[in-house]
Amino acid sequence: MLEVEFAGLKLRNPTILASGIMGESAGSLIRIAKSGAGAVVTKSIGLEARSGYPNPTVVEVECGILNSMGLPNPGIEEFGREIEELKEIDIPIIGSIFGKDEEEFALLAKRMEGYGVDALELNLSCPHAKGYGLEVGSDPDAVKSITKEVKRNVSIPVFPKISANVGDVVEIGKAVEEGGADGIVAINSIRAMKIDLSTKMPILHNRFGGYSGKGIKPIGVRCVYELSSELDIPVIGVGGIETGEDAAEYILAGAVAVEIGSAIFYRGIDVFKKVCQELEEWMKKNGYNSIDDFRGLALR
Ligand SMILES: Cc1cc2nc3c(=O)[nH]c(=O)nc-3n(C[C@H](O)[C@H](O)[C@H](O)COP(=O)(O)O)c2cc1C
Predict the structure, then answer these.
(1) Catalytic amino acids?
(2) Does the pTM of the predicted model rise above 0.85?
(3) Protein residue with least CA distance to atom 26, ligand 1
(4) pLDDT tens-digit profile of 12-27?
(5) CB of 124 closer than 8 Å to CB of 105
(6) What is the CA(285)–ligand 1 centre distance, in A?
(7) Which of ligand 1's atoms lies nearest the C-alpha of 240?
(8) CA 45 remoteness from chain centre
(9) N or C: the chain end with fewer CB closer than 10 Å?
(10) Which ranges constitute the DSSP H helices of the chain?
């Protein structure tokens, strides 16, 4: 009932672990796979190891969390060892990478493909890492050339992940499509800040962070709706999904699948199973037998 297929990938259900939450080690990815997710995205991996920003890097805010991790990761060389251990996972593994230009992205993409991942997610949208992410991903020409260069170098599906922190998501979406991407992921966390009333200073060490969780869901749904209306490639929705009904909303806006991140903090690692059960109940109540029966209905 919940199976989905897009860009040549077959998922047992439309829930995917979002990048950066429990996706750094093989052990945690295996736990997520066993807890019911349809696919997993790894933590974003760069060329060299990075330790990320000093603490505090995460703070709870209204309707979600702010994080400014600074893309900590072991580097592409070391990460190969983690992927090696993932052989027992029987769901698609999507390798997330970040770089500062098309050469870096292409190099990382080839290494990730060599490790045996099933698809690639290009992080073009981190809201708090200097020189990476959003700084690259808000320029349509850069987005197009990075996508094109990665596509030229690998044969697995490529999904650029974009931000809502751009003037026009459709313009960036079109650049992704023109670059030859097999799908697009929207959205990353949203650039935000929290100030401590006692110290009168921003709480996060990096001052700015990315806002995720329930509070950003309406923004994510809007972006998925706009992208689904204007693009021909599949759109994967992410941002504030905690329940089956949240997932249904994204699918009605046109999403082929949904990624879940912050909800793990609120509902535990079983969130994938819970969202699937709730989605199935919602579908039965509404008389739908498959995801395709209601995907994109809101676009009429
Ligand atoms: C602690 C934390 C770390 C994250 N790290 C990454 C990352 O490495 N790469 C990436 O593309 N997105 C990263 N994200 C963004 C999520 O993948 C997701 O796009 C965002 O949190 C919105 O979804 P959510 O509301 O379900 O959490 C991170 C989010 C959080 C909360």
Answers:
(1) 126
(2) yes
(3) 261
(4) 999 999 999 988 789 9
(5) no
(6) 32
(7) 25
(8) 13
(9) C
(10) 26-34, 76-84, 102-115, 134-137, 140-153, 169-178, 217-230, 244-252, 263-267, 271-285
